[in-house]
Fold:
Amino acid sequence: MAPDWNTKLTSAQEMLPLLYNLHHNNNIITSIFGRILMGVTDIDIVKAHRYSRLATDTELTPAQTLPIVQALATLNPTSASIDIGTLAVRYAEHHSDNHGEPEDLVAFLRTELAEVLPADDAGDHENPVSATPPRDIVLYGFGRIGRLLARILISREAAFGSVKLRAVVVRKNGDNDLQKRASLLRRDSVHGAFNGTITVDEEHNVIWANGTKIQIIYSNDPASVDYTNYGITDAIVVDNTGRWRDEAGLQQHLKATGCSRVVLTAPGKGDLKNVVYGINHTDITPDDAIVTAASCTTNAITPVLKVINDHYGIQGGHVETVHSFTNDQNLIDNFHRGSRRGRAAGLNMVLTETGAAKAVAKALPELAGKLTGNAIRVPTPDVSMAVLNLTLDKEVTREEVNDLMDRVALYSDLRQQIAYIHSPEVVSTDFVGTTHAGIIDGLATIANGNHLVLYVWYDNEFGYSNQVIRIVEELAQARPLVLPRRINQAEL
Structure:
């Protein structure tokens, strides 16, 4: 194993400067079946190739993908997210000329990546990094979700430069407010340390994070903020306070000078459009000044329910959520406006209501009235599970459902929303930091005739926050082009 390992490391080390140059010069992010190769080490690259065994008959090695990265460096592509793992598999298995000889790699890549390659052989085109200025993003609130959104936005700016966190609006809580908020961004008991450096400019109320200037604005009134005073225009404001959830309340943001659109990180009330990215994000129109990102549970289960309904049909079902406690609950027994939530969160399982099952219908109208739901809050700080107990239109087997979900997770247009795992040892902490909306636990799947039970893990903080950022990028028209194109899950 040692010589094989050293060979893999050698190829990975040769790949590192090429990956850096592709990102720095061409705004290209590469991945191996969704495992991003940005800011990685040689060992990270080897591990990403190890993951490919789930998608191919034989595990890819860095030696197989290195020629693709080398060829990309000569083709001068424009901004995109390129899956070199998928390209390697397609090149090896499906592309040969009429004589059975392997197709020229460069010719193959020119066909597969035509959308982002210059038309002429000279390879001249406008520098994609500086072509479009990034869209201004403001976070209104800086709690659990707000700080994770900040981390993701900072990393996305470094990756693609298409969205930029400009400011955070909060209420001031004392003279040391700025230092405390910077410290909470720097260290997190669940998600670990911030990946980079954070400094504070108290004179100007600014937090610097990896070179990103984050203006801290103190205000109790969304409508009174003038963002243009800070050079912020046409901003997308992400309200993560949960204080206002109806149109009238959220319209206060639109009265602020410099704000043009609003995203709510909670289910909206009334006629507000609830968006689950990957399912109904294409329903967003230029006239939608306010959209909501639904809930973490709705984001976790809706993509899975979409796949099952498209392939097997859902007659009805029940969703039981086993949910980590949240800041809304009491640390010890005390008064709470909600039923049962006043009891100590760290000592009890707390049965409560959830609107997630009904909220699915806002993204999937075909499931309106078909689902019920409840939730049990449990003494864990993050990562939850939804149990989908479904009655289908047709009989299924455990094997065929798991195979479908595995293929959806690897190849489909819902790859960012759905992951699949088949391990007898995983527990909730193994899913802290996942970027997926939900992860199917294949070993727990139960199928009996037309009765199906699926267990879906989800990081109710970080996974959900990634779904929110996808909506923000959609509004900013800043979603990266992903190549090769993914397959519509309904066609698998």
The CA atoms of residues 316 and 460 lie 25 Å apart. Residues 126-130 have pLDDT under 50 and may be disordered. The longest helix spans residues 2-26. The two ends are 36 Å apart (CA to CA).
